[in-house]
Design goal:
Elements: H1 8-19, H2 35-59, E1 84-92, H3 95-105, E2 109-113, E3 117-122, E4 125-131, E5 144-151, H4 154-163, E6 168-174, E7 189-194, E8 200-205, E9 211-218, H5 221-232, E10 235-236, E11 247-249, E12 252-255, E13 258-262, E14 265-271, H6 272-278, E15 298-305, H7 308-317, E16 322-329, E17 334-340, E18 346-351
Parallel strand pairs: 1-4, 5-8, 9-14, 15-18
Antiparallel strand pairs: 1-15, 2-3, 3-4, 5-9, 6-7, 7-8, 10-13, 11-12, 13-14, 16-17, 17-18
């Protein structure tokens, strides 16, 4: 029965449209937030609305007759390497506690990677954990911002998390009026969970409750996105050419940006200038360049390939920096190497695709 509010179906349509793009700037809770961060958090929400509005307008198909006259967009060139999303690798002071945290709060399960390492299996990829002696740095100065899960009923999911004692970096927030949907409420929500060692995990309205996205920062989001397409086979969402025009809203840089897919994971890239404007306290001691991800709370991202030796040589010949040559463990069962991606992100290449044993 329609009681004057939005229907479930309309909610789903909005959630499907927005969920692949939504990743919001975290805001600190309570008295710890100073006035400057309060303004930053509020403005960031408005910034996000403007960005998603632009994305929706760009990606919405035209319904008039002239839309049939549009030419087919050119096909992207074949990637140098066809890769698949394989894992996130986190640094933590207590791997067992981290595994318990993720598997008790999100849609994922305990597993043993290659039968050797306790880990988390999230539908089609792994979360791996390295034990470190001291809490790793987590400030938003590197290429990796956060990762996240969807929620079909965000309000119920949020309440369930509160009942479990989950700590939120920022509370549930309604942003249903994104994309020109003026006055709408109850359609789209997001919140940030503070994970072990300050890892940032987003929950947002979606048509699923699985592990769904990885959000990155870049000095040049368009070039970074094109790099992932060329060298790892990621596919770009949308058909219009990516815009390099800066987009600023209330003095916050929100573009250029890119949105890609790698298997079932949406990889979204925002300009690092956004972090510098909204989180100046994270940029300490005069830091102006992005931090390498190595050694931080999310140390690196892993992609799998069919033939590691062949793939690595293709990348090397094309100028991609190889930081760690091929190594093997478990009697050759696992072969891996490391390359450096855009903005000093550490990327592991693993031979053989992710499977749960």
């Amino acid at each position: 029965m329609n009681r004057g509010g939005p229907s479930i179906e309309s909610s789903r349509r909005v959630a499907v449209l927005i969920s692949d793009y939504v990743c919001h700037f975290p805001r600190k809770n309570g008295n710890a937030m100073n006035k400057r961060n309060t303004y930053a958090g509020t403005s960031a929400l408005l910034v996000l609305a403007a960005l998603l509005c632009a994305m929706i307008l760009v990606s919405t198909p035209r319904s008039d007759a002239s839309s049939f006259e549009q030419t087919t967009p050119p096909q992207a060139p074949a990637p140098a390497v066809v890769a698949h999303f394989h894992h996130l690798h986190l640094n933590t002071t207590d791997p067992a506690a981290a595994i318990n945290f993720y598997t008790s709060k999100f849609d994922c399960e305990k597993g043993r990677f290659a039968g050797l390492l306790d880990a988390v299996w999230a539908q089609k990829s792994w979360m791996l954990f390295a034990k470190v002696a001291a809490p790793p740095p987590w400030e938003l100065t590197s290429a990796i911002w956060h990762f996240g899960w969807g929620a079909e009923d965000m309000k119920a999911t949020y309440q369930k998390q509160l009942d479990m004692g989950t700590k939120f970096f920022n509370p549930i927030t309604d942003i249903s009026d994104i994309g020109g949907n003026k006055g709408a409420t109850g359609l789209f929500y997001y919140a940030y969970v503070e994970g072990p060692d300050h890892a940032l995990i987003e929950l947002n309205t979606a048509n699923h409750h699985r592990f769904g996205h990885l959000h990155l920062f870049s000095e040049d989001p368009v070039s970074a996105g094109e790099w992932y397409m060329k060298y790892l086979g990621a596919t770009r969402r949308g058909t219009a050419p990516p815009s390099r025009e800066p987009r600023v809203y209330r003095d916050f840089p929100i573009g250029p940006s890119m949105s890609l897919m790698s298997d079932n994971v949406n990889i979204i890239i925002f300009p690092i200038q956004y972090s510098k404007k909204a989180y100046p306290d994270h940029w300490k001691n005069g830091q102006t360049t992005m931090s390498p991800t190595k050694g931080r709370v999310v140390d690196h991202v892993g992609f799998s390939v069919d033939n590691l030796t062949e793939s690595l040589e293709k990348l090397r010949k094309d100028g991609v920096k190889v930081t760690d040559e091929i190594k093997s463990v478990a009697g050759g069962k696992i072969k891996y190497a490391f390359i450096e991606g855009p903005d000093k992100i550490r990327i592991e290449l693993v031979e053989g695709h992710a499977t749960k044993e």
